[in-house]
Amino acid sequence: FDKGQFLSRQENWTELGRLIRESDKARSATPGGVPVSRVLAAGARHDAVQAAVDEVEAQNERGARASIDALTEVNEEYPDDHGVAMAVSLAHVDIAWAWRGEGHWHQLPTVNKGAFYAHFRAAARILDDFDAFELDAPSLASVRCTLLPAERRPDLRVADDFEDLIDLDPECPLHMRDLGVNLLPDWYGSYERLEIEANRTASRTADIWGTGGYAWTYLDALLIDDAAFDAVEPEFFVSGMRDI
User: Fold this and answer.
1) What values do phi and psi take at 131, rounded to 5?
2) How far is CA 235 from CA 66, 111, 156, 215, in A?
3) Can you give the three-state secondary structure of the chain, one letter per residue?
4) Closest to 198 in 3D by CA, of 233, 243, 225, 161
5) Is 2 exposed, middle or buried (0-12, 13-18, 19+ CB in 10 A)?
6) Residues 156-181: pLDDT tens digits?
7) For the residues 100-128, what does the mean pLDDT come to?
8) d(Cα 226, Cα 220) in Å, to the nearest integer?
9) Looking at residues 224-234, what average pLDDT do you find?
10) Residues 178, 29, 125, CA angle at the centre, nearest 5°?
11) Burial class (CB in 10 A: 0-12, 13-18, 19+), 113
């Protein structure tokens, strides 16, 4: 995180983009299983995002836009660097959520709703210039999954988007855990779909995790939603835990 922040403050985006790309290609992860590319990108965008969040809290739309403009210029300067693109697109996502806040959607001011969708669209446009499979870049597929909240029908995309991500980086448990949460009824799925995708994930990752993919997919879903215990197959889950 510190390295990503330092390099962005030095405006050394050439080195930063290279580090993100290389850690992405190597599937480097922290001891806790978080992709290093994600941590680098978090540090790289932190200052700009924090400045924008401060402006959002002050309801200063122009000020918030100015904070992201510098990163937009960086992205335009490095149009072929998907490491830079990842960091900038995630900055848009972070700022979108700042505009969203924690209140009920129907109570939000129109400017907040408009800014929320505008930043998600900006992030999507950045990603559209890259192919995650062609570049062997799970980080790009991961960002695509973060754009689900602004999709018209996220329920139609959630399984496919996460399947792409997991297929690119099957050794990372975080992706499977995120899939399970996104398939809960309060998000974009149902308990039936959670069970189906947990089984499919276990099958696709069996060469690495045995039956562990099933347990990983359910793990955080069970933490969040007690009703998911009615859907899980206990023996299969325990088998997955043992394989992990």
Assistant:
1) -115, 115
2) 54, 50, 30, 10
3) CHHHHHHHHCCCHHHHHHHHHHHHHCCCECCCCCEHHHHHHHHHHHHHHHHHHHHHHCCCHHHHHHHHHHHHHHHHHCCCCHHHHHHHHHHHHHHHHHHHCCCCHHHCCHHHHHHHHHHHHHHHHHHCCCCHHHHCCHHHHHHHHHCHHHCCCHHHHHHHHHHHHHHHCCCCHHHHHHHHHHCCCCCCCCHHHHHHHHHHHHHHCHHHHCCHHHHHHHHHHHHHCHHHHHCCCHHHHHHHHHHC
4) 233
5) exposed
6) 999 999 999 999 999 999 999 999 99
7) 92
8) 11
9) 97
10) 60
11) middle
pLDDT exceeds cutoff 90 at 230? yes
Angle between helices 173-182 and 138-146 (to 10 degrees): 20
Which pTM value belongs to this model?
A: 0.94
**What is the tens place of the pLDDT at every residue in 58-89?**
888 888 888 889 899 999 999 999 999 999 99
Distances (CA, A) of 129 to 84, 120, 233: 12, 15, 41
Distance from C-alpha of 143 to C-alpha of 172, rounded to nearest angstrom: 15
The token duo for 8 is 């962005």
Q: Are 166 and 203 in contact (CB under 8 A)?
A: no
- Read off the tokens for 49: 């995002």
Average pLDDT for residues 110-114, to the nearest whole number? Answer: 91
Nearest to 220 by CA among 180, 192, 182, 190: 180
What are the tokens at 185? Answer: 């009824």
Q: How far is CA 54 from CA 61, 217, 225, in A?
A: 11, 36, 33
Residue 231 has pLDDT above 90, yes or no: yes
